[in-house]
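Notes to self after the Tuesday call (sharing in case useful).
The group wants a holo model before anyone commits to mutagenesis around the pocket. I volunteered. Ligand is molybdenum atom. Logging inputs and output together so the record is complete.
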Amino acid sequence: MKPSVPIPPSEITPYHLYLSRREFLKAAGIVSAGALLAAACGVQPSSESGSVATPVAPSVSAQTDELGDPLNTYEEITTYNNYYEFTTDKQRVARLAENFKTSPWEVEVGGLVHKPQTFGLEDLLKKFPSEERIYRMRCVEAWSMVIPWQGFPLASLLEAVEPTSEAKYVRFEAVYDPDAMPGQKSKFYPWPYTEGLRLDEAMHDLTIMATGLYGAPLLPQSGAPLRLVVPWKYGFKSIKGVVKIELTKFPPETLWNTVAPQEYGFYANVNPQVDHPRWSQATERRIGEAHRRPTLMFNGYEAEVASLYEGMDLRRNF
Ligand SMILES: Nc1nc2c(c(=O)[nH]1)N[C@H]1C(S)=C(S)[C@@H](COP(=O)(O)O)O[C@H]1N2
Ligand SMILES: [Mo]
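Result:
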């Protein structure tokens, strides 16, 4: 299947329209143009990486998503975050995560597969070329953004380890490091953060492992160096800081479903007709906009994903 977001070359927009290069380098914590290119493109920095090279501005391919909604700014995307391992205060995540060490990083992929394998992050970047995907992100709390990710289809990674015929679900586990992540001192949550998908959801072309956004490597607050993005589901499914992926026969336990099963289902498909027990899901607040907007079925990806749920009662399987 083709990505649902076409990338017409005519719409390529220099990154500096969004953020000056200087600010960008600062924000991304990157010191040289060569290192910047290397990080964003997964290539080796050249010997001149200490000097300022010419065409280095990372770019996004369009200024809107396929529905015409403008991208959120880099600033918005990287300063308003949910990452409970650090704090439940969205505006303090970036600061608390600033020095979180995301390299070296390994991801163990196993369970019901023929070829279990542990990948270093560099192996992943080399093996699975990154693509841009401009996706809406809809949090279950009813705010949303439009984010230009870089990443690769989770399907490519799963195919590489060859799931057995017994495998029906995928379990994801995030990093556990309470010394570096102050929120993990809270005994209220069953750390590490875990999530899960049905195997066909995980194999869907819209489902990606993201490694960057706006042409820059992910910052810690966005789930660096590797996080899941499933755009038709509520944001909590898109687990950050992934260290383990396991194929299973049965639906895995997930953090939010364990903490409050009546509020957070396993499926968590964006659905304006099924309210959260404590608030409506019919509308949402797009960050940067003054007025609420209607929430779209499957977050606007209905044509691509509705067939996955044919015959299911979406109120019961919420
Ligand atoms: N490991 C981990 N992943 C997580 C979370 C978290 O607390 N820990 N929060 C989730 C929630 S509720 C949302 S809405 C999105 C937010 O992603 P963003 O901050 O990049 O917009 O991340 C999800 N992934
Ligand atoms: Mo969320």
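Two things stood out.
The CA atoms of residues 58 and 215 lie 5 Å apart.
The chain has nine helices and 14 strands.
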